[in-house]
Design brief:
This protein has about 425 residues and is α+β, with helices and mostly antiparallel strands. The protein has twelve helices and 18 strands. The chain is elongated and about 75 Å long. The model has no long low-confidence stretch (mean pLDDT about 95). The structure holds glycine and manganese (II) ion (2 copies). The site of glycine (GLY) has 6 residues, from loops.
C-alpha cells in the first residue's frame, strides 16, 4: 500500500461516525492577463495524494464503516495541451495516488449531492474541510468557498475543520518524510559549501543568494523552502532581513538562513561565517557562546520535553553567560525570537505551540541567535533535529559549524 493510501486510511479512521473529508489542491492565482503566480499545492492535499496539480479535489467518505475515495480533476483539454502541455492524465493520477475513482471536476457537486441525500437524516454526519486561513480577511480558499456554498445549500449540514485531525498526523513524520527532509538538507549543505567558497570582501549579498539558487538548480531543485536571508554586518541583526542588496565588507560576519526543498519537504538551516574567511577574536568569542547553547539544546531535546523548556534553557544560559562578554542589557535585547518550530512540508510546519510536548518522530529546528546591533554582529546557528524517545538526531550534522572547520574550509576552497 502506498504511503498516501496509508495516510488517508489513518485520517478517515480518526473520525467517529459517518464522515466525508474533502481536500482541495488549490487554484492558480492570475498575475496578469496570461501569467499566473507560481502554483504551490495545498500541503494537506499533497500529503494525502502525492499530487501537485491545481483544481483537484480529494473526497474520502466513510459511511457505515465502508470507506470510499475519489479524486476530481480537470479532464484533457486540447487548448491547454497546445499552450501549456497536457494535464496529468487520469491514469497517472490513479497511479500516483492509488485512488481508483478519478472523475471530472465538474461532477464534484452532483456526487456530493447524491451522497448527502442518503445521509441527511443522520444528525452525526459531518463534512470535514481544510478551513485554515491566516487571517479572517485573507481571500477565501477553495475549501472556504466550498464550505460557504454547502452551508447555503444544506443549512443543517455539520461542517468541521480538518486541521486537528490532519495536524496530529503531520506532526509525526514517517520514514519517507524524514528521507525527504534529509535530502533537502543535503542539497542545502551542497549550496552552503558553494556560498562559503564564493564569498569575499566587496562582493554583495545578492551574489550569495544567487549562488545558493544556482547550486540548488544545478541539483534540479527548483523550489526554495522560503525567501533566503543573506545578511552581512548589521543587516544580520534584522531578523527577517531579505533585501539582500548590500556590499559585504572585510571584517564583517555573514548570516544566511536558507533551505532547499525535496518533494516539497523543507530544510531550514542558518549558518554564520566571516566574509573574509577568518573570525575576529570578538566574533569568535560571541559565536562560541551561541554554538555552546545550541549544543546544550541538542543534548536536551527529546520526547517529553517542550519547546518552552528548550527556549528557557537558552534564556537562562544567556542570562548567565552574556554579562561575562560585556553584554549587560536584558537578554531580550540580544535574543527575542524563540528556539524553533516544527519542520516538514511547511518551513513553519503544523504549529504545536511553545507548550507542546515533543514526541518521537517530530522534526524541529534548533536556532538560537545573538544580535548585537551596536557591534554589527548578528549570529544564528540553525540545525534540524529529529526527536527520538531518549534524545534526538541532528539531520544537519554534516554542515560545518565549528570555527576551525569553517575557517579551514574557507581557506582551502576558493572560487
Ligand atoms: N527561516 C525561517 C526560520 O528560521 O524560522
Ligand atoms: Mn531558518
Ligand atoms: Mn527556522
Amino acid at each position: 500500500m502506498s504511503i498516501y493510501k496509508t495516510r488517508r486510511e489513518r485520517l478517515i479512521n480518526s473520525y467517529e461516525g459517518n464522515t466525508c473529508v474533502i481536500v482541495f489542491s488549490g487554484k492558480e492565482i492570475m498575475k496578469s492577463e496570461d501569467e499566473c503566480y507560481d502554483f504551490d499545492v495545498n500541503r494537506n492535499f499533497y500529503y494525502l495524494t502525492g499530487l501537485e496539480r491545481n483544481d483537484m479535489a480529494l473526497v474520502i467518505t466513510k459511511i457505515d464503516d465502508a470507506v470510499k475515495e475519489f479524486i476530481f480533476a480537470q479532464p484533457y483539454s486540447e487548448f491547454i495541451a497546445k499552450w501549456y502541455g497536457d494535464r496529468m492524465p487520469f491514469e497517472e493520477i490513479k497511479e500516483i495516488s492509488e485512488v481508483d475513482s478519478v472523475n471530472e471536476y465538474d461532477s464534484l457537486r452532483s456526487t456530493f449531492a447524491s451522497m448527502y441525500n442518503r445521509l441527511r437524516r443522520d444528525p452525526e454526519f459531518k463534512v470535514s474541510l481544510d478551513l485554515w486561513q491566516y487571517t479572517a480577511t485573507q481571500d477565501a480558499s477553495m475549501a472556504v468557498q466550498f464550505a460557504n456554498e454547502l452551508k447555503e445549500r444544506y443549512p443543517g449540514l455539520k461542517i468541521v475543520d480538518l486541521y486537528p485531525a490532519i495536524a496530529s498526523l503531520r506532526l509525526i513524520k514517517d520514514e519517507e518524510e524524514i528521507k525527504n527532509i534529509s535530502e533537502a538538507i543535503a542539497t542545502t549543505k551542497f549550496a552552503q559549501d558553494w556560498m562559503m567558497s564564493f564569498i569575499k570582501p566587496e562582493t554583495n549579498e545578492m551574489m550569495m543568494e544567487a549562488t545558493f539558487d544556482y547550486a540548488l538548480k544545478s541539483r534540479m531543485c527548483n523550489k526554495r523552502a522560503f525567501t533566503t536571508i543573506a545578511a552581512s554586518g548589521k543587516n544580520a541583526t534584522v531578523l527577517h532581513y531579505h533585501d539582500n542588496n548590500q556590499v559585504m565588507h572585510d571584517g564583517d560576519l555573514f548570516l544566511c538562513d536558507m533551505g532547499a526543498t525535496y518533494k516539497n519537504y523543507c530544510a531550514d538551516i542558518s549558518r554564520t561565517f566571516p566574509v573574509n574567511g577568518k573570525f575576529t577574536e570578538r566574533q569568535k568569542e560571541l559565536y562560541e557562546v551561541v554554538l555552546a547553547v545550541q549544543k546544550l539544546v541538542e543534548s536536551t531535546a527529546k520526547a517529553g520535553v517542550s519547546m518552552r523548556d528548550l527556549n528557557k534553557l537558552v534564556v537562562d544560559f544567556y542570562k548567565e553567560e552574556l554579562p561575562k562578554h560585556g553584554l549587560t542589557k536584558d537578554v531580550s535585547e540580544y535574543y527575542w525570537h524563540s528556539i524553533g518550530h516544527q519542520l516538514g512540508l511547511d518551513t513553519h510546519d503544523i504549529d504545536g505551540g511553545l507548550g507542546a510536548i515533543l514526541k518521537p518522530g517530530m522534526v524541529i529546528t534548533n536556532e538560537p541567535g545573538l544580535y548585537v546591533a551596536d557591534e554589527n554582529i548578528g549570529i544564528r546557528i540553525e540545525d534540524d533535529l529529529l526527536i527520538t524517545e531518549d534524545g534526538c538526531i541532528n539531520l544537519a550534522k554534516d554542515l560545518y559549524k565549528e570555527v576551525a572547520d569553517i575557517e579551514g574550509f574557507m581557506a582551502n576552497y576558493k572560487h
